[in-house]
Amino acid sequence: MTSSKFPENFLWGGAIAANQAEGAYLAGNKGLTLVDLLPTGEKRRSIMKGNVPALTPLEGEFYPSHEAIDFYHHYKEDIALFAEMGFKVLRVSISWARIYPTGEDAVPNVAGLKFYDDLFDELLKYNIQPVVTLAHFDVPVALIQKYGSWRSRKMVELFEIYSKTVLERYKDKVKYWMTFNEINMLLHLPFLGAGLVFQEGDNVKQIQYQAAHHQLVASALAVKACHELIPDAQIGCMLAAGSFYPYTCNPEDVFQGMEKDRESYFFIDVQSRGEYPGYAKRFFRDQGLSIEMEPDDAGILKSHTVDYIGFSYYSSRTTSTDPEVQKNMTSGNVFGSIANPYLAKSEWGWTIDPKGMRITANQLHDRYQKPLFVVENGFGAHDEVTPEGEINDDYRINYLKRHIAEMSEAIQDGVEILGYTSWGPIDIVSASSGEMRKRYGYIYVDRDNEGQGTMKRIPKKSFGWYKKAIQSNGSDLEE
């Protein structure tokens, strides 16, 4: 499929995150945030899971977020390139610690507020609408030190203050918001997803689901504030999506696939439907978990549900109850997956499954009956610059056009999709590995895994391809 149909007002663009793009990690009085403690190398994944050696950067480690691609200083140049491709929207995140360096300062940081004013003004100059995530793998380190991050109920109050500050400040500039990026990542990489640090003897599941409850209440309060402060805005939640296929038609495999999906749907069930589902209550009983809730929490969750469902889709997953089959796990996938014999994999072990995009979109729409927004989808690969200075990333074009075509099929199935912001339109630091070598962009950034390079921006072959795709509103996906 190379010809697709999209609504006239479809929102084409790209997506980046503050912690992977901005750099300038202490500029303008910014405080440390959790990603500033994630080094490259073999320790990174362990730290993301909550085994954190120190709450300050350590000598001898390289922290890629500290400089990243220096979007903080290059944003005008980068946005001009996004405008050249014809972007209608750019998804970004606000760094909480740029606005409140310690997370509980008496007044917001003027320099941080001004940076995002300038950023949004630059986007609007080109008629690019900002799509803004309030928390994208981002907790001020001072709040981890003082409160244990989202373990503490105090975080709900502080997040509400932060949310109201930025919603009020940018209410005339931003009409699309999201609360927590890939909120279900809390279960898989709890430090990355929620700033959780574990000690020996901790009841990890209890801590994770208590933190999840605090985030869900905080999300609902942000929705409430958005609806009150910006009545014409839309605010959504965001899921790291991708269906779990049963490896066989054995009912045990089928049921496990359903349970694996529910691990993630749990968060969106609460944010979209406004209450804890029955299967979650049973899970808490079976696991001996007791979630502390305030008397008003049920009402808050029920009264302030999201307007749309944002989701990332990179790959599907496969699960089995057979111990022999379980030995055949793919590498690289955060969620853990059996290798699917019908599908190819990327260099980093991610399953390539365009049809899974259509399946996932249909499942989400059937489940929630709310508009969807594909806010991440992309292909991480090693790109070579030719002697002529070209980057011929046909593999990326092939991946993206097949996924966009399946997204179009989902729309024709009756699924309402607001837009598509591919990840990331310019090379940025990989969240999972901390590498620059794992590139997603239409624009190459001259920077390597060790932080060396000129930071020069070079459009790749996919740059022109995506420009044509947007100009044709998705009807021309040929190279």
TrEMBL record:
One GO CC annotation: cytosol
Signal peptide span: none
GO molecular function, one term: beta-glucosidase activity
Catalytic residue positions: E376 (nucleophile)
Superkingdom to which the source organism belongs: Bacteria
Hydrolase in keyword set: yes
UniProt keyword annotations, A-Z: Glycosidase, Hydrolase
Listed GO biological process terms: carbohydrate catabolic process
Matches recorded under InterPro entries: GH, GH_1_N_CS, Glyco_hydro_1, Glyco_hydro_1_AS
UniProt-listed Pfam families: Glyco_hydro_1
Record SUPFAM superfamilies: (Trans)glycosidases
PANTHER family documented for this protein: 6-PHOSPHO-BETA-GLUCOSIDASE ASCB-RELATED (PTHR10353:SF122), GLYCOSYL HYDROLASE (PTHR10353)
Similarity annotation: Belongs to the glycosyl hydrolase 1 family.
Protein name (record): Amygdalase
Record organism: Paenibacillus albidus
